[in-house]
Write a structure and sequence with these properties.
about 500 residues; alpha+beta; D-Maltodextrin-Binding Protein, domain 2; Dipeptide-binding Protein, domain 3; 5-stranded mixed β-sheet; 17 helices; 23 strands; about 30% helix; about 20% strand; peptide transmembrane transporter activity; Peptide/Ni-bd; SBP_5; transport; signal
Length: about 500
């Protein structure tokens, strides 16, 4: 099933017993009541939406539960579908947009969720001091103007007709009460005020987050559940075992082997097919990877199929090209393959110049990340004039270090649905999400061309240049296709995903 989903790149979403577009048990009527137990992979720093990430590998259920969504994208055709918003349109090729809202929306503190509240949230997300990953999207907005309580005019720094796909993928989609945010972080964490389907009961750090149904939710009779219990479990095997032993109802999943195990046991899964993937990023800003030869040597030295074996039991999909052949943007431009002899020549040449390759892999605390780092370290130990160290830190530290660009090597991603957001964000010279520090004029120009082109044919030409330059620049090792996904108990229904594996908790219901 997982391999088949990967082949459906860019056109559909598929899963075990349901579809990401419609959810499990589509023929049944939702039943009210019950509490769903949810596993997420990363503990939040705090409950400010600016600190949460709307991807399968972070806190999507929590953000959607507390703050609801302005809009989502349909994973079958990537059309925008509206929730608290009623429209997000442009008439000038993405130079400006008009956001319209449902009338009468209110936060749980009784204050209005209006266009002024959206403006407040979007303006603050541009502040680097927040350390929000959504700054990548927020800084594309030059300014916004409140037209009336339900209308906001948005002016972009540069035209981007595909900006809606970027908006749904981050905290721009989650609006919190301005008055509550202004009370400070401690007060907000004790009482995070949104307009989502659930409200906070209790957050016991490093243990659990208890949520209860919001009786004033705008889209009644949703949510169907009475509550959610969210726990952070960073280990994939533990998440799988918890689902299969009845200890959880919904779990984000990051591991191909774990998904196959759950699927084989007859449990529901939902997978969002994507292009691009996860890559081991090398920091262009400092030695040793400010020298392209060092990056190329690592790419030639590491056998990614062997990495796949130790990390995913051989069940992951190692990208051979940036896009799958089923994508309209596919080009036969192969990603680097191992050549140990050429790698050693490069390591020796750098050492002869007094620049032996020595670096530290900054690892997240997950089993996947640690195994990947140690596997890469073990492979490189067979070469002369290269030293790889591993430093394991928690999610908050890793996120902060990545944001500060304080790393030599780290896991990153450029996961592609519509190609603009993932690739422009990760690799454009002007993007704050460009963690590796690429600043290549030809690459940036091609990314701009792909963003602004009006036809698939024009975009294909632009993204062919993007693919070629990425291979030539070697920003990292593309070690696995990402697997934005969830697993579920057999009693959970209504699973509905958008963007990169983000479930809508208001749609969930249980037959327990």
């Amino acid at each position: 099933m997982v391999a088949a989903c990967a082949g459906a790149l860019l056109f559909s979403a598929c899963g075990g017993t349901g579809s990401a577009a419609g959810g499990q048990s589509e023929g049944g009527e939702p039943v009210a009541g019950g509490v769903a137990r949810v596993l997420q992979t990363g503990e939040p720093r705090n409950l400010d939406p600016a600190s949460l990430s709307n991807t399968w590998a972070h806190q999507p259920v929590l953000g959607n539960a507390l703050y609801g969504t302005l809009m989502i994208n349909n994973l079958e055709n990537f059309d925008l579908e509206y929730k608290m918003a009623t429209g997000f349109s442009t008439t000038d090729g993405g130079a400006t947009f008009t956001l319209t809202l449902q009338p009468g929306l209110k936060f749980t503190d009784g204050t209005p969720l209006d266009s002024a509240a959206v403006k407040f949230n979007w303006d603050r997300l541009r502040d680097p001091a927040l350390g929000s990953t959504t700054i990548r999207q927020a800084v594309q907005i030059a300014s916004s103007e409140v037209i009336d309580p339900t209308t906001l005019k948005v002016t972009m720094v540069a035209p981007n007709p595909h900006f809606g796909q970027s908006l749904v993928a981050g905290a721009l989609n989650w609006i919190a009460s301005p008055s509550a945010l202004q009370k400070g972080q401690a007060a907000f964490d004790a009482n995070p005020v949104g307009a989502g389907p659930f409200t906070l009961v209790e957050w016991v750090r490093q243990d659990k987050i208890e949520l209860q149904k919001n009786p004033g939710y705008w889209d009644a009779p949703k949510p169907y559940l009475e509550g959610l219990t969210i726990k952070t479990v960073s280990d994939s095997n533990q998440r799988v075992n918890t689902i299969m032993t009845g200890g959880a109802d919904l779990s984000s999943e990051t591991n191909w082997a774990s998904l196959n195990k759950v699927e084989a046991a007859g449990y529901p899964t939902e997978v969002v097919p994507t292009g691009g993937g996860q890559f081991v990023a090398m920091n262009f800003r400092r030695a040793p990877f400010d020298d392209e030869r060092a990056r190329r040597a690592i790419g030639l030295a590491v056998d990614l199929d062997a990495i796949n074996t130790i990390v995913y039991n051989g069940e992951g999909v190692v990208p051979k090209t940036l896009f799958e052949e089923s994508s309209p943007y596919y080009a036969d431009i192969p990603l680097p393959t191992p050549n140990s002899e050429e790698a050693q020549k490069l390591f020796d040449a750098l050492a002869a110049e007094g620049k032996p390759v020595s670096f530290t892999f900054l690892s997240y605390p997950t089993t996947e990340s640690k195994t990947l780092a140690e596997g890469l370290q073990a492979q490189l130990s067979a070469f002369d004039n290269v030293e790889a160290k591993v430093e394991v830190v928690d999610f908050a530290v890793a996120t902060a270090r990545a944001g500060a660009r304080d790393f030599d090597m780290i896991i990153s991603s450029a996961v592609v649905q519509d190609p603009d957001f993932g690739l422009w964000t990760a690799f454009h010279g002007a993007s704050p999400g460009n963690f590796v520090g690429i600043n290549d004029p030809e690459l940036s120009a091609a990314l701009d061309a792909g963003r602004n082109a009006e036809s698939v044919e024009e975009r294909k030409v632009a993204y062919e240049t993007v693919q070629r330059r990425l291979v030539e620049l070697n920003p990292g090792l593309w070690y696995v296709r990402a697997v934005p996904s969830v697993t579920a108990s057999k009693s959970l229904n209504g699973i509905d995903l958008y963007t990169l594996g983000s479930p809508l908790p208001e749609e969930l219901w249980t037959t327990k």
